[in-house]
Every structure is written in structure tokens, then in C-alpha cells.
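User: Last request for today: this protein with zinc ion, please.
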Amino acid sequence: MSSLRLGIDQAYLKDTFDQLAEIGRDPDGRGYQRLAWTEAEREAHRWFRSKAVQLGFSTWTDHAGNSFADFTGGADPSIPALAIGSHLDTVPYGGAFDGGLGVVAALAAGKAIRESGLTLARPLRLAAFTDEEGPRFGTGLLGSKALAGALDMDLIRNARDSTNISLNSAMATSACDLESLPLVQQSLKRFAGYLELHIEQGPRLERSNTRTGAVTAVTGIRQISVYFHGKTNHAGTTPKPERKNALRAASETIVRFSDWVDQTDNLVANPGKILVHPNAANVVPGEAQIDWDMRSPDSALLDQAYAKLAEYAENAAASMSMQATHQLFHDVPPCPLFSPWIQITEQCAHELDLSITRLVSWAGHDAGVLGLVIPSAMIFVPSRDGISHAPEEFSDDAALVDGTQLLGETALSILLKEGPL
Ligand SMILES: [Zn+2]
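Assistant: Here's the final one, the structure of the complex with zinc ion:
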């Protein structure tokens, strides 16, 4: 176990954060536009690699556009490296901290580890993943999924943005080729594990006045379309007992299933999208679709919730003499993080005199993808008012420093450990 060996250069940390915060900033002050496969994301990756080169790291990229920077620290370069980092893309009108903080902190922690002069048992790798957020093509976590060998190539080949640009042509502007993505997995054997610092993106740490969080698991996510098949007819003349209003059955399902979710711990479910046909006030709608997003770190609970949703939908539909059907269209398994590293994180927080609590991540992260194939862990720092994916996203300088110190010490402990992880 390390014991406060690292001196984080706080001026470097702040200055580096401010440099990244200039890239892709909306000129009208509406946050950031570093969407995947845009010039802004590419510029952020070039910036990251040049910063790493300045620190004496050797950089490389893969076929997914992920950027890496290696420092052996006296270790045998053939030994798999510990990667630390996050992503550089943002959602539309996103904040400066989501992803960016983890990459900047990795640079500052990497600088401190290099300057410590300690001989490492395994190499250190700084990592910046591409297309983590996914709103442009619906292909979130693309960079880490490529590395983990978890890509759905059919989905990727058919992906288009709202202006009908294909993912393949967008990737070409970043000198990447969609059909080469499966090659990315070949470098996974060079990774011993992955450690990511991220903002919490929720209010729990701030409300409990806790400075850091050790993430125990990244939530599983299932997205499900539920369809109600009623009968389209005149809104005035159809006798009441004969009305098969699909919107009404959908509404009843939303209310009843949401009530069940409210009674269930360790599970959230959101009805986020509704489509009604023909969507006119004077027509009994014959078709309705609700898209749900349900999340839990417990896959058995997700199974149970999906079955309950189907049951409530079928019951609501049957009570109005219609059918309900459903389809799972997005399925991310829950990812328990690596418990020895959760313990190391907590130990380092105690040594740094930082309060720490264990918590689940209810948002998806690259660590939740990589954690299914290599040991992975995550550290959270508080988000002001729990706001994220918005220009108001903010974590104060103390959170930047706390998070970077804890990232650095935890990484160093792992880097110095001989033998099995
Ligand atoms: Zn993120």
C-alpha cells in the first residue's frame, strides 16, 4: 500500500483542465459540443496526446480512435499496463466535467507518478476513449466496447445521425474505418485493468457531505418498447364499451408499473418516450408505444422488472380487449467492479484523510464495459446540485484535487504491486 508518495501539481491540474475546457465550448455559453466523430472531439484527442508527449509518455491510437499514452516506469513493457482515464466526447450542450475530468486527472496523476521516480511493477497507461456518450449515432461506449470485444456490429453498420450521415462516413473523417473495429480487441491483452475517475452526476455525495465515492457496480440498463394494439375509430361515435384506446392502456401501464418500481429498492425505471397513432384528438388511437429505460446493478431484479412490466402491460391491454407486445432493444449487463481495488481506493482515501462512501453508478461508463473483461474500478467526486449533461455541470476545485489525488494514489498502489492483481 502506498502512503502519500505523490505530489499532485495542482497548478498543472487546474491549467490542464482549463485548456481542455476551451475545446468545443459553445460560443454562446451553452456548454460543450464535443460530439463523437466531430472536429471538436478530434481536437481534444490531439490535445490529450500532445499533453502526454510533453510528460514523456509514448502515445498510440487504435482503430476506434481511442488515444493512449504509456509510461513503463522501469517495468517490463511486455507486462499488461494499468490504464487510467475517461472519455473526451460530450453530449450536445454538455458540461466540462463529464469525461474531461477523468482524462485531465489521469494526466496530472501520470505526471506525479512519473516524477515520483518510483520503479513500477507494471506500466501505466493514460486512456481517452471515443464516443462514450453516444447521442449522435446511438452507439455509446463505442471505444471501450471495441476494446472489450463487445460491439454489436449490425447496430454499428446501420447507425446514422439525425442528418442521415452514416457512422462509417463520420468515422472516416477521423481516419477510422468501421470494419476495422473488431481489430481493436487485439490490444486488450496489453491491459491489466482500468481505473476511472468521474463526476458522480447525481446528488448523493454532496447531500451526504462526502468528498469521494468508491463505485461498487455500474448499473445494468435495459431499454424496452411496449406496444399496445387497439382499434382506431371515431372519437365521438364509438360506443364506450367498444373503445380500444391504445393510449389509455399505455397510460395505465405507466402508472401501475411506476407504482411497483417505487416500492422496489435498487431499481429505477423511466417511461421516456411515447408514440401514438394516429395522434389526433378526435381519433381513438389504435396504436401506442412506450419506450422504457430500466436500470439496476442486479440482473435478477432486471429480469423480474421486465416480467412485471410485461404483466402490467398485458393486464392493462386485456382489460380493454386488446393485445400488448414488447421488445428489448438495448441491453447492457450490470458490471460489479473489482473488489480488491474498491478496498485499495478506500484505504488510499483514509490515508489522504478524504471521506469516502460506497455507491452504485446509475449511469453507464467505460469502466462498466471494461469491468466485464478486465479488473476495473471507479472513483466519484461530487457534482454540484447533482446536475450533469448540462452547461451547469460543476465540481469545485477541491473535488478536482481530491479526485486526482485519490486516483493517483490508488493507481500507484496497483502499479507497485508485484504479482497477481
Ligand atoms: Zn462520462
